[in-house]
UniProtKB/TrEMBL annotation:
Residues of the THAP-type domain: 66-148
Cofactors (names): a divalent metal cation
InterPro entries for this protein: HARBI1_dom (IPR027806), THAP_Znf (IPR006612), THAP_Znf_sf (IPR038441), Transposase_HTH_dom (IPR027805)
Organism superkingdom: Eukaryota
Residue segments, region Disordered: 161-180
One Gene Ontology MF term: DNA binding
The protein's name: THAP-type domain-containing protein
Record keywords: DNA-binding, Metal-binding, Zinc, Zinc-finger
SMART domains from the UniProt entry: DM3, THAP
Organism in which the protein naturally occurs: Cyprinus carpio carpio
Keyword Isomerase belongs to the record: no
Pfam family, one: THAP
Amino acid sequence: MPVVMVTQKAINRLYAHGGDDVLPLKSQPAKPFPLALRRLFTKRYNSNYNMTSKKTFKFQRTIYSTAEHCCVPLCQASSKYNSLLSFHTFPSDAEIRRKWLVAIRRDKFTVTPHTRVCSRHFNKEDVREPLSETGRRLLNKGAVPALFEWNNFTLPTSRPGVWERRERPPPMTEDDGDAGEKADIPMDHDYASASDPAVVDLALDDNMSLRDEILKLREHVEKLTMNQRFGIHRFAASDKDIRFFTRFASYDLLMRFWALIEPSLPNMVSVTQAQRGTFTEPSSTVTRFLQPIDEMFMFLNYLALGSKQRDLADRYGVHQSTVSRIITTWSNFLYTVLGSVRIWIPEEKIRAHLPAEFKDYADTTVILDCTELRCQCPSSPLLQSEMFSAYKSHCTLKGLLGVAPHGAVTFISQLYAGSISDKQITRESGILSLLRPGMAIMVDRGFLVDDLVPCKIYRPAFLSGRSQMSACEVRETQAIARLRVHVERLIRRVKEHKFFDTEIPLRLFGNINQLYTVACLLTNYENGPLVKAWAKKPE
């Protein structure tokens, strides 16, 4: 009998799977190993080991100092305890590596040179057994793991292809079915025979009902789509909602205002165009995320409700930076368009529309008053002292407003630091260039501008050290106060825009003059007459 020399490594591989009665061999010198015994162990090895088996081998492997582990989820195979398994690295081909990651359900897994997949997850056809006891198992080219815990280590049965021949089912016999029940076999339609009128009428009724149901469903879908999209058309049917979101009294007034500014839209320069310097670029080529009318509606929401830009971005489904660009673009656009309309009314037109309440002050051209807006305090002490208002006890921005006797805004100054006096703001605002001799202005006690204006001034009387005013002065003061209250009502209309309720942040100072001027000018369009009794009915 020939003698075969078997190495210690081969003997350990044979004994490791032998069963509970076989222990791993200690390091021994190589000894002759009978061929019959070798065949016996080889047969036992082949019968017990199955590549798809889920059995965990518990006999420790001692021939390697480092252990390899399988990276497949739910698989705990390790070369330290499963000596009969082979562990394979990921292929270098990117496409096959991707297939491996998808197969083991670890798409975003980071593969390293030490990442392994054990042989129990491959088909037998994909694994090449070693030619010798000391050889290594290799994978066929393109092999992909397919046997896992979640598919019970089995392959799914494949459906036969379209062009594969299939066995024809055996013909049905009378014994297979119920002899007492015979199925109605539809015959070919006889086109020469007329249909039953009742059946035709029933089919027509069904068609009509289905058509009506389809129309109702379409209307319902359109309504849901309209309600889901936040914009002006969603609230067009409710004047109450329009007033809440825009401060316009009704949808009709808002559409009239839109008709006035819509022809100027082709000349609109967006903030993006201004930053790039592409002023000559047609506005139609600018990317718009919203329709122009919805952009205007968003801007009015910003003024009327004081909405935060993040809130508007969520409502309209756009990015917050898009909201910022739209607000800046529309504030500049309306500042230019509405500012190009002459709001100063000539003296003769004012007298033609003078309310009866002003009969004792018929030469009054404008009622002047100042308003202050609270703003964020700057960090510079010098700027704080300039912007601090003793009247508001806070840092403010101050502006001068002029109102015609019938209630229309006729003059809007720019905003100044809150510490400026009424006299100084009258000098610097530009109102003096509009006044002429023969006119008259109505002001509050703080406007000591007698040496500045070239016209008459109606102002409440001062005590000037007296204990009380005369009866004539009291009557005149009360009359002026009753008429001056209308400019205060106009200022209240401006401040009904919730944007001015909170402190104006310093980051908006570059755009605050436009926002303030537009809010003041919009009062001429948003509501009806300031005093309804003064409104003249159209002839």
